[in-house]
Amino acid sequence: MELILFEIALTFYFAAALAGILELFKGTKTTSRIMLGLTVLGFAVHTANIITRYAIAGHIPISNLHEASSFFSWCIILLFFFIESRYKIGLLGSFIMPVVFILMLSSSVLPRAIKPLSPVLQSYWFGIHTVLAFTGDAAFAIAFGIGIMYLIQEHQVKSKHLGGLFQRLPSLQILDEINYRLITIGWMLLTLAIITGVIWAESAWGRYWRWDPKEVWSLITWFIYAAVLHVRLIAGWRGRRAALLSIIGFFVVLFTFFGVNLILKGLHAFV
């Protein structure tokens, strides 16, 4: 049953991504509503999939790469709904839904077997640490989409193409503000994730830090976003520079998420 729910959610997200692309080039209120409606339906089915898998496994389903990629997508959609309700950015889904679909598609080709948790994961820190990390990464994913929107809008302004797309995108100031807030929230959540991970590592292995590849790349990610916030506050790096850094930072997040697990392995590798 949970496999069927996953495939249905994937289908809805695919349709929402297509509607989002159509909205970007030939946007109308109808396509915007269709995209949002498909996203809501996909999220509802996706939530049912996660709950069902939780009931079967007996633990939060983020113990392998299939589950982690799926849960990451779910977190992005949840945060997308919050940003959409707060700022009413109609075109945001056009930049976020393709990312969600790619993550879900990646999840669909990964092994889906439900396995018992290893002894080290049978801790209350497991849920706390991972949910903080995924939520922080979701904020970085939305900031990635906002960063792309900023660069497009900036190009519209500089080229004086003040047509339909320019009018449907938020102002540069609003996009820059949202980008800053998302990175701040993501960085704070990542900080808490690292702290809880360190505490968990000490209780599980007797050491706070083992220089595992995932730990190293998580720290690299933390420093990148800390640098983004630092140069904004100290050197006044806003606008285009901040947008570019948010895009680069998210690629580092993706490498930490996928590359480390598939290439570098280590204690934190998903099974």
Question: What does this 3D model show about the protein?
Answer:
By secondary structure, the protein is mainly alpha-helical. It folds into 2 domains: 1-73 and 88-112; 119-271, no CATH class. It contains 9 helices and no strands. Helix 5 runs antiparallel to helix 7 (172-205) and helix 5 (124-158) crosses helix 9. The model has no long low-confidence stretch (mean pLDDT 87).
Radius of gyration: 19 Å
Main β-sheet: number of strands, strand sense, barrel status?
Answer: none
Structural class from helices and strands?
mainly alpha
Outline the low-pLDDT stretches.
none
Question: How many discrete domains?
Answer: 2
The helix-strand sequence is HHHHHHHHH
The average pLDDT score comes to 87
Strand content: under 5%
Overall spatial form: flat
Total helix count? 9
List keywords for this structure.
mainly alpha; 2 domains
Briefly say what this structure is.
By secondary structure, this protein is mainly α. Helix content is 79%, strand content 0%.
Blueprint of the fold:
Layout: H1 2-26, H2 29-57, H3 65-87, H4 92-108, H5 124-158, H6 164-168, H7 172-205, H8 213-234, H9 240-264
